[in-house]
Amino acid sequence: MHKRTIYVVDDVETNIELVEAVFKNDPNLTIGQALHGKELLDLVDKSGVPDLLILDLMMPVMDGFAVLEALKEARSKTYFPVIILSALSDKQSIIRALSVGADDYVTKPFFVEELKARVYNMLKLKERDEFLNTSLDFLESNLHEKMRMLEHTQIEIVHRLGRASEFRDNETGMHVERISDYVNLISEELGMNLDQAMMMRYASPMHDVGKIGIPDNILLKTDKLTDSEHDIIKLHTVIGGKILSGTTLPLMELAKEIAVSHHERWDGLGYPFKLDKDLIPISGRIVAVADVFDALTSERVYKKAWDVGKAFEYIKEQRAKQFDPSVVDAFLNIEQPIRRVKESKADLPSQKAMLQQVLDGEVAMDDLVDRWR
Fold first, then answer.
1. How many CB atoms lie within 10 A of CB 320?
2. How far is CA 162 from the centre of its chain?
3. Residue 227 is inside which H or E element, if any?
4. Tens-digit pLDDT profile for residues 292-309
5. 91, 150, 286, 312: which has the fewest Cβ within 10 Å?
6. Mean per-residue pLDDT for 6-19?
7. DSSP letter assigned to residue 193
8. Order of strands, sheet of 4-9, starting from the edge strand that comes earlier in the sequence
9. What's the Rg (C-alpha) of the chain?
C-alpha cells in the first residue's frame, strides 16, 4: 500500500491516542489530528485533504454533521472516505451521517480488529477510486488524441481532394491554398467565431471537386467554349454535391454546401439552381467572392492575370449584383491581408506545364521529381 494520511477528529484526546495506537506499527500510515471540526478544516486548508477521515459526531465548536456538509465540495474534487467513530448508536444518527456523506459507521467503544478492518477496506476503496480516475484520465486523453487525429485526417482528405481537382484544371494547388486563406479572413471579418471560420477554411478547398467529373476535352479546352460545353462545365457544382453527399460529418456537409452553391449569384442569375440573396448559403456567398477574385488575379492558358487593384474594383462593382453586399463589404475591409495572401502564395508553374516540358525534352524527369519532392 502507498503511504497514506489519516486525520482523526475527536474532542477527547484519549480517543485520538487510542486510534493512533491501533495503527502505530503500520509504517505506511501517518495520523493527523484535530479536536473539533473547525480545527480539522484549518488542517485541510493548511496540509490538504487526507486519504481517510475518522470523524466523531459530538464535538464543540463544529460537530461531525457540520463537518460532513463543509467537506462536500473538497470531496467532490478529491474523494476520500469518511468513517464515523461515535458513541451515538441510534438509527437516526447513523442514517443522518450516512446521508450527508459518511462512508462507514463504527460505534464506541469499538473493537480494535473491527476498526482496522474498516479502515483498510476504506483505504482500498480510495485506491480503487484513484486507479479508476487515472484510467479514465488516460482513456479520456487517449480519446481526445484519437479524435484530434481523426479530425486532422478529415481535414487532410478534404484539402488533398481539393488539390486533386485543381490538378485536373491545369493549376498548381496554390489556388486552393489562397481560397482557404481568403475565406477564413472574410469569415472572421463577418463575425463568425473561431470554430466557424476554421470550418470554412477547411471546407472551402473542395469547392471545385466536381471538376473531376468533367471531360478533359471540355475542362482543358483553351478555345472559347460553346454554349453546350459551358452548360457541361456548370455541372461541376452538381457533381461536387454528389461526390460529397451521403455523409454526416459536419466538415463534409459544409464542403458539399459550398461545392453546390459557390456559383450562385445574389441577383439570381447564377447556377445550378438560380438561387438569390439569402436563399444562397452564406458559405457559398463567401466562397463566390474569394473564388472570383482569385480567378481574376491568376493567369490561365486562356487569359492574363488582372491587376489586383482592378480585381478589387470589379468585386466592388458587383456588390448587390453578383455578390452578397455584406460579403463584399467584409472583403473590401480586409484588402491588405488579402493582398498579403496573394503575394505570399503566388502561383508556381503548373504541374501539367512541367510534365509537358518533360515530354518536350526541356526538363529531365529526375529534375522534375526533385522539384516536386
1. 12
2. 22
3. helix 227-234
4. 999 999 887 667 889 999
5. 91
6. 94
7. -
8. 29-34, 4-9, 52-55, 82-86, 104-107
9. 36
